[in-house]
Structures are given as structure tokens and as C-alpha cells.
């Protein structure tokens, strides 16, 4: 157990490509930290640099206060779980888990004790003598975890360890990974591109984009106070709605109609010296069916009437989609769309996703009125992506 | 398709079996013929019967009693084994580097080794002959081992690098994370997984060396280093009027059998998919 500090860590490939740029992260002892971002954002490269599988071009990596930039992976006392699990196919489960201990030249009795202990924790005891090829995906994943925990390393590194599992199993394993980490109290760095995993697992989340850290913080903090458009759009599912807005006298002209500027928004815009054109962001759950909202709430929000495009009833909630005439444009939003694959779906106009109460009588094809909470509205600068409503 | 599947597949099976039988017969008849000749007595050699009328082991007895053949057999085995061992060790290292590392001149190296494999060997015979005579390698074991390594290395590198490429790189990273040095990672993880590939390559290289006639003919002159294929061609009967066909056939059978046995024996190991289950799949 120990702390890990990345101090202006940079990775530049020989061809000049900058994969990771001046990353500063201080990971406390026992902390569970998530590196998240779209593919190619440098999260895996960062993890590999902590592991020692890739060289650090510049900056310092300290584990327990010691600079380990030039140490081989084996001298860093860190265990890693790979996306593909990387189990040794010619060895049994027992031998796979014993492999690191055998390399550490422990005596046979100790190795047996530790392997049996890890197998018990991970519920692998009855599979110890099988080969990886005879195990299911979930069992292989647990063997990979087992191989990491037997050594009692200073830290665990996990590179998308659940992404090869099917959806249901992934949710189960997510809980057990979280429980295991709490139980062992080992510092853990976990890479994922799945924002749900990031939100649910981590003590803190590091959002990366193009090799640059966008924001570091507790999941709830990132959710409520995203530093920029990218974080706002990446965290949360379904994603935050973005609509273009122009500052007009006393209000904002948007695809949701004329929105009055509350004191909070006005102050934020003055403080941030906002441009005339901004992007308005609001999450689907900050909408509600206008007929279900009382007067007091109505006064704190605004309403929008639009043609209901699609209604998805989830049982607990209803996702209601409205078509909008305009779509917010910015480099960050385009990158997010490309990552989620939605840029492949041709759509010239925008879309508004709202999450309404299950009792809402809304039907497809209706012109329906929804209320939204002005207190939750966030404004972004389209050119820099900066969140204008973020309190300093 | 499913409704008519029965008759359709039966007809197809029949067609394929017929075709397969044809190919196998075409390939095996000469081999069986040689075997049949090797069991015939000199008097019945030319009687045209596929199955010998009079069976005899005399041909085998005669070749195995001459030092000419035994010495050639020893040369063949020794030279082929040494050349194979060296080529496979060098090939493994080269193939590993080609499959795993980025280094300047990699494409050139692969290109040149392919070029060597394509080179018509006959064009090199005279220069090699001159070089080896000058260096004193002519008619020695190293004199044959060296060219064999040269020409089998490209083959070894190609087959082995294909095998190495199939081994997930993450296994090596995992081994390093588990505390292995690069050497340990190679010996304990990569090498066992590459074993089927190494066996396959070793057999291919061995067969190449074992079957070579051109170099063995031109780069040897005496029993010191003459290999079996060449010794065979020098076989004569006991007198100049005696037909050596029987002895040649017997010797041909003796040198063919080890290859067939080796292939049959190692086939299982070659086919065994050791890498399955390494990663999700």
C-alpha cells in the first residue's frame, strides 16, 4: 500500500506524437482512482507508464516518495490486470496465480497458502487445477484478479478489466471489484472508457482528452460541476443536452425558447465575461412533465413545449425525446459524438432528451409541455468549452 | 438448403473422397514402388510386378554391411541435426525480434532474408565451391552445415515469426508485471507457447537439410562428409554388370522412413493449439 504521484508526466512517441501531456495526479494511499476518457485519450498510456511498460518522456513518477521512472516493472511492486486477462494458457489456474510468487522465490508452503487464500476470496477454489481455456469469461477475469492480489503489491493497475464481459456479468463484477478493493485497501488505478464504471467505482475520477487531464474530482462533483463541455458531455447517461443560446436583452434565445436569466446565470456570465453566443447544457433528469410540477417549482424553472419524437418507457422513468431545430456545435461535442459513434447517424437538427416521471401521460406525436430546472442549467463557452457557470 | 442437405452433402463427400484418393494414390505409388523394388531379388527386379514374387532382405543386408552407406547415414544425421539446431536457435531469436521489436532496418532484414530463400541455389554452387576450397571447408561437416543454415534460416525465421505474432503480447507484459526479467518472461511464458512453432520449424529445416542433394554433391568428395542422397547416387553393384537398383531402393527407403516417422510423431504436437484460452476468444 502506498501513494503514487504523477508530476508533470509526459509521453512523446519517437514519431513526435504527444500521447500524454503534463499529467499531474496525486493518488493517496488506498485510494481507488479512475482514468476515464474516449479511446486515444492517453489513459492506457498513463497506466502503462505507472506500470513501467512504457517509458516516461519527461516528468516524475513517484511511488511512496521514491522516483521510479527508470525502474523495471518488476522492481516497482505493482500488479496489473489486463483487458484480455493475459492468463498463461500453458499453466493451470493455481500455477497462474502462483507465478508471481514463484518468481519472488517464496517457499512452496507460503505460495500454497497465499494462492489458496486468494482463491477462497475470489471463489476459485474448485477451479484451481483447470486451464484458463476451460474457464468462462467471468472466471478468467477472477483468475486475473487473483494473480494480482496474491502478491499483496503496493498498488493495483487495471486496464479495462471488465470490458470483455457481457453486460450483466459486468455489473456484478463491478460490485465485486469495488468490494475487493475496499476489503484489501490497496491503492488502485483503474482505466475505463465506460463512464458508468467511472462514476460507480472510483473515489476520484480523472477525465482525460487528447492526452490532457480535463478534470479530477469525486464522481458526484464531476457530475454536478463539470469544468468544461467535454466533461459535462462525457459524464452522465443519457448525456447532458446541449443547445445553442444567444444572449438577448434580459434573457437567452435558445431552441427551447426564450429563457429568462436568473441571478445565478447573470452573475456567472458577468464574472466570466461571457461571449454573446454560448452553449446551454442541461441534464435529462432536470426536466419534468409540466403537469406534474407544483407552482413553487414552476417559478424556479421554465417550460418548453415541443413535438414528442420518441418515448422510451423504462418502467421507473420515461425517456422522452424531442426534436430541436438547432444543434450546438463545438470541437469537443464533435469529439464526443465521434467517440460514442453518434456522428455516424446523420442528424442535422438537434435532439433533446428528457427523463420524466413514469406517471407522465406523454405520448409520441403529442405537443407536450416539459418543465426544466433553471437552477441546474449550465452555460459553456463554445470556443474554449469552459464552463461559465462554474463557481470559482 | 437444409432440406436437400442430405443428398447434397453425400454427393459432395463422394466427390471429395474420390479426388482425395486420386491425389493420395498419385503421391504414394512411387514410394510404394521403391519399397517393392527394395524387397525384390536381382532376378525379379524387372518382372514388372508391383508385389514382389520373391521377397528378400538381401538389399538391406548389403547396404547396411557397407561402410559406404553407414558412414553416409552418420554424416546425414549429424549434419542435419547440427544445422537444424543452430538454425532454429538463431531463427527463434531473429523471429522474436522481428515479431516484437521495432528497429531500424527491420524491413530490409526481412526483405533480404526472403531474397536469400528465393535465390537459385545452383548459381551459388561454383562460388561456394571455390570459397570452401580456399578456406579448407571443402569436404568437411561445417562445409555443409554452413550453407544449410544459410538457406534454412529464412524459412525458420518466416515460420517462427508467424508463430510469435500469434502469441498475445500482453502475456509478456503480464509476466514482466508479475516480476519476471525479460529473460524469464521469454523462457517461462513465451518459449513454452512457441514450442509447437519451434517443433514445426525444426522438422521443416531438418527435412530441408536431410533431402539436399545439390550442395552435398558439389561440396563433398569423400566418405568423410558425403551424405546419403549423394552416396546413393554413387552406388554400384558388386560388379559392373550387376544392377544396383535393389540397393538404391533399399537405401531410399531407409532414408525416407525417419522423415515419415518424424512427421507422424510430431504432427500431434504441431496441431495442438497451446495458445487457446490465453485471451478472450
Automatic annotation (TrEMBL), chain A:
Top-rank taxon, per record: Bacteria
Q: What's one Pfam family the UniProt record gives for this protein?
A: ABC_tran
Q: Which keywords has UniProt assigned to this entry? A: ATP-binding, Cell membrane, Membrane, Nucleotide-binding, Translocase, Transport
Q: Read off the Gene3D superfamilies from this record.
A: 2.40.50.100, Nucleic acid-binding proteins, P-loop containing nucleotide triphosphate hydrolases
Q: Which GO terms describe its molecular function?
A: ATP binding
**Keyword Signal recorded:** no
Under InterPro entries, the record lists: AAA+_ATPase, ABC_transporter-like_ATP-bd, ABC_transporter-like_CS, ABC_transpr_MalK-like, ABC_transpr_MalK/UgpC-like, Mo/tungstate-bd_C_term_dom, NA-bd_OB-fold, OB_MalK-like
Location of the ABC transporter domain: 4-235
- Please indicate if the UniProt record lists Nucleotide-binding as a keyword: yes
NCBIfam families tied to this protein: PRK11650.1
Q: What is this protein called?
A: Carbohydrate ABC transporter ATP-binding protein, CUT1 family (TC 3.A.1.1.-)
UniProtKB/TrEMBL annotation, chain B:
- CDD domains attached to this UniProt entry: TM_PBP2
Query: How does it sit in the bilayer?
Result: Multi-pass membrane protein
What region holds the ABC transmembrane type-1 domain? 73-266
Where located? Cell membrane
Q: Which Pfam families match?
A: BPD_transp_1 (PF00528)
Enumerate the transmembrane spans: 18-39, 72-96, 108-129, 141-164, 185-208, 248-266
Q: Which UniProt keywords apply?
A: Cell membrane, Membrane, Transmembrane, Transmembrane helix, Transport
The family database entries (PANTHER family) matched by this protein are listed as:
INNER MEMBRANE ABC TRANSPORTER PERMEASE PROTEIN YCJP, MALTOSE TRANSPORT SYSTEM PERMEASE-RELATED
Q: Which family does it belong to?
A: Belongs to the binding-protein-dependent transport system permease family.
What protein name does the entry list?
Carbohydrate ABC transporter membrane protein 2, CUT1 family
The protein's organism comes out as: Actinoalloteichus caeruleus DSM 43889
Amino acid at each position: 500500500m502506498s501513494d503514487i504521484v504523477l508530476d508533470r508526466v509526459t509521453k512523446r512517441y519517437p514519431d513526435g506524437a504527444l500521447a500524454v501531456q503534463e499529467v499531474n495526479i496525486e493518488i493517496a494511499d488506498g485510494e481507488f482512482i479512475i482514468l476515464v476518457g474516449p479511446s486515444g485519450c492517453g489513459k492506457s498510456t498513463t497506466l502503462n507508464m505507472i506500470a513501467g511498460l512504457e517509458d516516461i518522456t519527461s516528468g516524475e513518477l513517484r511511488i511512496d516518495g521514491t522516483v521510479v521512472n527508470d525502474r523495471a516493472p518488476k522492481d516497482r511492486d505493482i500488479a496489473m490486470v489486463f483487458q484480455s486477462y493475459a492468463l498463461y494458457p500453458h499453466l493451470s489456474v493455481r500455477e497462474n496465480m502462483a507465478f508471481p510468487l514463484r518468481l519472488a522465490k517464496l517457499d512452496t508452503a507460503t505460495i500454497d497458502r497465499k494462492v489458496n487464500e486468494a482463491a477462497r476470496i475470489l471463489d476459485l477454489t474448485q477451479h484451481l487445477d483447470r486451464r484458463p481455456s476451460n474457464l468462462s469469461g467471468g472466471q478468467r477475469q477472477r483468475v486475473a484478479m487473483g494473480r494480482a492480489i496474491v502478491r499483496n503489491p503496493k498498488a493495483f493497475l487495471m486496464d479495462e478489466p471488465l470490458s470483455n464481459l457481457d453486460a450483466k456479468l459486468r455489473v456484478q463484477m463491478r460490485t465485486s471489484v469495488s468490494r475487493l478493493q475496499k476489503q484489501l485497501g490497496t491503492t488502485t488505478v483503474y482505466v475505463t472508457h465506460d463512464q458508468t464504471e467511472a462514476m460507480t467505482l472510483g473515489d476520484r475520477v480523472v477525465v482525460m482528452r487528447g492526452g490532457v487531464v480535463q478534470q479530477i474530482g469525486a464522481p458526484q462533483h464531476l457530475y454536478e460541476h463539470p469544468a468544461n463541455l467535454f466533461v459535462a458531455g462525457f459524464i452522465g447517461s443519457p448525456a447532458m443536452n446541449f443547445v445553442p443560446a444567444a444572449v438577448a436583452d434580459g434573457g437567452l434565445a435558445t431552441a427551447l425558447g426564450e429563457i429568462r436569466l436568473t441571478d445565478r446565470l447573470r452573475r456567472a456570465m458577468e464574472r466570466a465575461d461571457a461571449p454573446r453566443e454560448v452553449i446551454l447544457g442541461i441534464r435529462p433528469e432536470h426536466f419534468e412533465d409540466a403537469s406534474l410540477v407544483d407552482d413553487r417549482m414552476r417559478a424556479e424553472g421554465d417550460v418548453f413545449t415541443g413535438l414528442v419524437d420518441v418515448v422510451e418507457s423504462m418502467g421507473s422513468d420515461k425517456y422522452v425525446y424531442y426534436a430541436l431545430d438547432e444543434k450546438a456545435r463545438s470541437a469537443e461535442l464533435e469529439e464526443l459524438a465521434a467517440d460514442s459513434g453518434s456522428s455516424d447517424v446523420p442528424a442535422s437538427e438537434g435532439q433533446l432528451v428528457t427523463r420524466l416521471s413514469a406517471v407522465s401521460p406523454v405520448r409520441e406525436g403529442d405537443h407536450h409541455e416539459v418543465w426544466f430546472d433553471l437552477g441546474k442549467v449550465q452555460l459553456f463557452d463554445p470556443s474554449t468549452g469552459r464552463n461559465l457557470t462554474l463557481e470559482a | 438448403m437444409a432440406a436437400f442437405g442430405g443428398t447434397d452433402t453425400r454427393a459432395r463427400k463422394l466427390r471429395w473422397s474420390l479426388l482425395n484418393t486420386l491425389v493420395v494414390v498419385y503421391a504414394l505409388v512411387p514410394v510404394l514402388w521403391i519399397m517393392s523394388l527394395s524387397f525384390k531379388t536381382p532376378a525379379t527386379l524387372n518382372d514388372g510386378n508391383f508385389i514382389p514374387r520373391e521377397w528378400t532382405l538381401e538389399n538391406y543386408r548389403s547396404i547396411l554391411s557397407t561402410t559406404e552407406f553407414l558412414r553416409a547415414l552418420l554424416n546425414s544425421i549429424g549434419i542435419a541435426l547440427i544445422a537444424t539446431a543452430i538454425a532454429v536457435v538463431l531463427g527463434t531469436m531473429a523471429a522474436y525480434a522481428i515479431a516484437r521489436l521495432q528497429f531500424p532496418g527491420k524491413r530490409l532484414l526481412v526483405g533480404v532474408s526472403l531474397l536469400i530463400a528465393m535465390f537459385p541455389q545452383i548459381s551459388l554452387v561454383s562460388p561456394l565451391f571455390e570459397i570452401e576450397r580456399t578456406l579448407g571447408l571443402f569436404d568437411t561437416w561445417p562445409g555443409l552445415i554452413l550453407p544449410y543454415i544459410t538457406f534454412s534460416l529464412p524459412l525458420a525465421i518466416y515460420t517462427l515469426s508467424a508463430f510469435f505474432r500469434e502469441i498475445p503480447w500482453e502475456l509478456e507484459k503480464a509476466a514482466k508485471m508479475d516480476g519476471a526479467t525479460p529473460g524469464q518472461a521469454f523462457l517461462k511464458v513465451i518459449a513454452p507457447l512457441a514450442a509447437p512453432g519451434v517443433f514445426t520449424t525444426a522438422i521443416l529445416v531438418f527435412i530441408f537439410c536431410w533431402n539436399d542433394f545439390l550442395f552435398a554433391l558439389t561440396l563433398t568428395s569423400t566418405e568423410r562428409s558425403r551424405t546419403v542422397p549423394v552416396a546413393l547416387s554413387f552406388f554400384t553393384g558388386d560388379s559392373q554388370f550387376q544392377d544396383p537398383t535393389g540397393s538404391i531402393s533399399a537405401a531410399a527407403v531407409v532414408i525416407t522412413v525417419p522423415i515419415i516417422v518424424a512427421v507422424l510423431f510430431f504432427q500431434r504436437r504441431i496441431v495442438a493449439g497451446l495458445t487457446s484460452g490465453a485471451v478472450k476468444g
